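One thing: could you explain this record?
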Amino acid sequence: MFFPSLREARSLLCRVIMREMMNRWMEKRIQEVTTGCIYISGAVEYDDRAASAVREQLVHSVTMWRDALMCAIRQSKDEGPLRQDTDPALMPFELDSFTLGLHHDACFLHLPEAVQLTRDALEKIFTSYQTAGSNGGAQTGAPTGASPAATTVASHHTDSR
């Protein structure tokens, strides 16, 4: 009784930590739709430049985030919330693609549904990677602690045209 409870608790904790990491990450990206994202802009500006302190700091920051996310993915695989065939390198790539899609659709195309599409994509990826019988900590609607920017970004861009 004791050990199965501990295993279930670790599994639940991994699921919650990973989902919260992603929800907070996504909320930050949503806020940056109205202010600009230094990581996206920096990647575009410095991708083809020689090494510099700014470029190296951007690379370091992004690498730290991806490493932390890959660690959470590996732990979630070990503890059960994520399927064993989950690729810890592919999942962050997919999640980062949502950031670029959000930036493109909200900032460039001014699509009011960009934020909700991003949230739906995030939920879909969590569902696709979760183990059978796991609810993956599924939530509906805006993530916990959704920022006011997340709910007003669409109107901001629609009004600014």
Helices lie at 2-35, 38-46, 53-79, 90-108, 114-129, 148-159. The two ends are 61 Å apart (CA to CA). The CA atoms of residues 8 and 22 lie 21 Å apart. The chain has one domain: 2-159.
